[in-house]
Design goal:
The complex is a heterotrimer, with 2 copies of chain A (474 residues) and 1 copy of chain C (206 residues).
Chain A: H1 2-9, H2 23-29, H3 31-38, E1 55-56, H4 57-60, H5 63-67, E2 78-79, H6 86-92, H7 118-126, H8 128-132, H9 149-152, H10 165-173, H11 183-189, E3 199-201, E4 212-214, H12 223-233, E5 238-239, E6 246-247, H13 254-258, H14 262-265, H15 270-274, E7 277-280, E8 283-286, H16 297-300, H17 309-346, H18 351-373, H19 377-380, H20 382-409, H21 424-430, H22 435-447, H23 449-463, H24 469-472
Antiparallel strand pairs in A: 1-2, 3-4, 5-6, 7-8
Helix pairs in contact in A: 2-3, 17-18, 17-20, 18-20
Chain C: H1 2-7, H2 15-36, H3 47-50, H4 57-64, H5 74-78, H6 84-103, H7 115-133, H8 136-141, H9 145-150, H10 190-205
Classes of the chains: A mainly alpha (474), C mainly alpha (206).
The complex binds calcium ion (CA) (2 copies).
Chain lengths: 474, 474, 206
Amino acid sequence: NRKNEAKFKYAPQVNIDQNEPRNAVWGKNFPAEYQSYLQTSDTGFASYQGGSKMRDMLEEDPNLVILWAGYGFAKDYNQGRGHYYSVEDIHNTLRTGGPTGPGDGPMPATCWTCKSPDVPRLMNEIGVAEFYSGKWADKGAEVVNPIGCADCHNAETMKLQISRPALIEAFEAMGEDISKVTHQEMRSLVCAQCHVEYYFNKNLPGKEGTPYLVFPWKDGMKVEDMEKYYDELGFSDWTHALSKAPMLKAQHPGYETYLTGIHADRGVSCADCHMPYASEGGQKYTDHHIQSPLNNINNACQVCHRVNAEQLRANVYDRQRKATENRLKLEEQLVRAHLEAKKCWDLGATEEQMQPILTDIRHAQWRWDYAAAAHGASFHSPVETARVIGGGMAKAQDARVKLARLLSQLGFNEEVPFPDIATKEKAQEFLGMDMDKMKAEKEAFKENLLPKWLEEAKAREAKMSSDKVAEASN
Amino acid sequence: NRKNEAKFKYAPQVNIDQNEPRNAVWGKNFPAEYQSYLQTSDTGFASYQGGSKMRDMLEEDPNLVILWAGYGFAKDYNQGRGHYYSVEDIHNTLRTGGPTGPGDGPMPATCWTCKSPDVPRLMNEIGVAEFYSGKWADKGAEVVNPIGCADCHNAETMKLQISRPALIEAFEAMGEDISKVTHQEMRSLVCAQCHVEYYFNKNLPGKEGTPYLVFPWKDGMKVEDMEKYYDELGFSDWTHALSKAPMLKAQHPGYETYLTGIHADRGVSCADCHMPYASEGGQKYTDHHIQSPLNNINNACQVCHRVNAEQLRANVYDRQRKATENRLKLEEQLVRAHLEAKKCWDLGATEEQMQPILTDIRHAQWRWDYAAAAHGASFHSPVETARVIGGGMAKAQDARVKLARLLSQLGFNEEVPFPDIATKEKAQEFLGMDMDKMKAEKEAFKENLLPKWLEEAKAREAKMSSDKVAEASN
Amino acid sequence: MGFFKNILPPKTSRWRTTAVFLIAVMLGFSFFTAREAEVLSYLSDDPQACVNCHVMTPVYNSWMHSSHREWASCNDCHVPHNNVFNQYYFKAKDGLYHASIFTLRKEPEVIFMRDESAAVVQDNCLRCHVQQVTQTKYTGWLDSHASNRTDRTCWSCHREVPHGRVHGQSTIRTNIAPLPTDPTMEVVPAWLKNELSNTKSVSHEK
Ligand SMILES: [Ca+2]
Ligand SMILES: [Ca+2]
């Protein structure tokens, strides 16, 4: 019987604990998957707007610095790269600052949530709310392994499973039960643990003060639904440094926008394109080199689409270019609106006069960010992306017509001059940001605190053993 | 025995002349095609925004009356219906007015061009420029058969052929040779004789004064290309009654927008969806019931898409709804811009002050119309349609911010009141249009002149015989 | 005759003649259907049996041009292979169903597989490919591995296996496909045969 033969021949090498954060340990049992996973360390591919290369978004599009004035993203923002770098990149970003020890730094511990399989381990050990509490620096020594197996798999059965509470709670909030989904849906939902819009709620009953991770899906996942949700909550991520508008930041609503596209409509999952089958020895395995499918059109697209690779690539670029064209127009409108609002304040406008304008700006930029932040959206759902950008333009127009009237009323009836923000550096300088200081603090952190974290982690992991199966199942 | 049915037997009943405008005569040789063609007389189907039903567009969306103030379309505009009605509908529309005899009425003869197989006959008999000369009423007795066989077919071989000079000339202008196209392209190009943007050029060298039909494709078919073409020509269709902007009217750029969509990219032709094959007893024929494919999803879509009909319909409606949402926003912006410009003139603005604003309005509304006028575009090419609407919004914003500044300068620093244009009637009244008079003139035309045209035509056609094959090939 | 007693009205009833007539018509119709559509051809494994109906020509032609032609015939995919009884039962049931639809001219322009047929095809894909689509080593110890790999129709990704992208009655220009009932085709046309035999005889004479 071949089945028994297989069982005999391919016994697992090690027993894996559900809280095992080290991918290499899982890799002993699943070498093909692990080897392909390791390839997410490759940074050699660049497409029109994506790829695994490090891309400085602020350099490529300095408008962003102005749009995020007063917020962490104006300091440093890169296009995401492979899962292999998730921990390294959060160490390096200026957004997390240069903490000198526990309790220090601008970011909360919650920032770790989507960066490592150490997260489910820690949540298991200390509790969810406890995990979210405190500063990012407090848990630096605990979270060291990049995104990996334990984030998506059950260790015993290797079934896909949800390791992050926020997704489960979001389903509950929508009145749905995530344990009732199909296997096909799981092939997208494991990604929806992280590739989604989120916010930190500090006022959850019973958990006051803890920046608890929440996905704002209670009223739906469309741009209008989430806006309503945030408006009713009176929530804002930050106050804009120029316009003083109470802003919302959209973070990669990848899953939400994907759901509105034709591929989701036809039941195509994230894994179908980003983890297509590959074969080894005539047998299929799931390619764990999660990346831009444009670096793998043959397996990722051509099984379903029998047209040539260049045509498929052109289809993708065409949609991305059209989205970019109008997105850039909306960005310019928003930059102007922020500058015009600042001018109004400078000329003595009142809160009452500004309030409707600031609401328009908030809503317009929220739409822009929803359409821009998930880098795949302009292909995943080009029609919805365009609809959202159009909606943002309409709001921006409302704001700017009102601003023109208010400026005249305040005695200024001409175009507000557009500053020189041709590069990231110029834009940051225009805002008076002290980049040298931030970089120096980051360097100090990398020299002093970071090595300590890694040492501590190494010592901890050295104590964790990985049982050989033979020993365990004696 | 059904198997024998499959063996095609073609025995022509009559000899058909290339200039034969009567579809029934062709129908003697090709009964299946003719019978299905006759079904374009059905007016029983309505979809979300299309179908064969008569739909009064001005009633469904009274913004249009304002957008076209001072132009024929503000009088009367319906969503197109079956080819069977092409002649009846151009008789009935208020746009052609109520001519009382030759030389009378608002429209040129060129208007007949896309309405009948009498057109190639006449062009053949009297010449192309001669056909375009004179008034619409001058040729009323000549053009009586609705769109049909001679518009698309060679009478001898039944091959597809181009019967309209404008398309051939447009290819020449682009430096292409229409006789070199593939058969599959012909399955779209026969439609591109009519379902395209056009204008009447009265200054063609050697044909000065004749409103010669031209497709503005010399610099390309994109919205920006044609805009550039018209701008360089200094062409405008009319001057807006409120804003005095030199306007462009986009007429159903159906072929142009289709070309930018995924179906064209994959080689799917107009006929594939609007004239799918049907079979009757094993005999295949092209379904000549040209209509909304949503009334025929099994043949029109499921040949390629193995999903259920309701899902396909939902896909179409979803794209149409998203386009409509932003199109309506753009319409409101444009209506406001026209009203605001009028207010400026009323307050004594100068030509010089108004000029940049009017250019913005012209460009914004051109984009809107390009995206709206081809009723299929929001499905044929949803991403391009959205891109164009977004571009229109950006131009409208430029106009309105400038308008707000100019209004303030002229002493008016508030919102220009929005009139009550909730219905077509109210909107037409707001513009001071005398609809009763127009309707009365139309009635008089239908009672007096029209019957004479039809009688004259009847007499002419009675003299044309259709040779029986037996006699001809004796 | 007990059977007829039960279904026929009593001899005294005026309905009896009518009923006998109707039964005769029904039987006749069934035979007609069976003959017209060559239902017996369903029992054969020869793909040509399927093209007895011209409505099967498009799928026959697409299969003819697919890589599966050399490996799998219609029945390898469309008929259950789990046991012999099921195989013939399914064939007969399908055969009668297709035949009635065909005779009634109720076939849609674009045919879709029924859910039961889809399940049969899916099983057959697996019958041949299970070794390729599942990892032998994992099937032994990961319980859901096989179902994870097979709970979705194969042709949701392999959309053109084996019938291509475009489906439907009219997707091929001519209805020409070899019918088993056709006489053997003339490979060499008569005039050429003549010509050749002339040449032969001429050269012989030389
Ligand atoms: Ca990337
Ligand atoms: Ca219509």
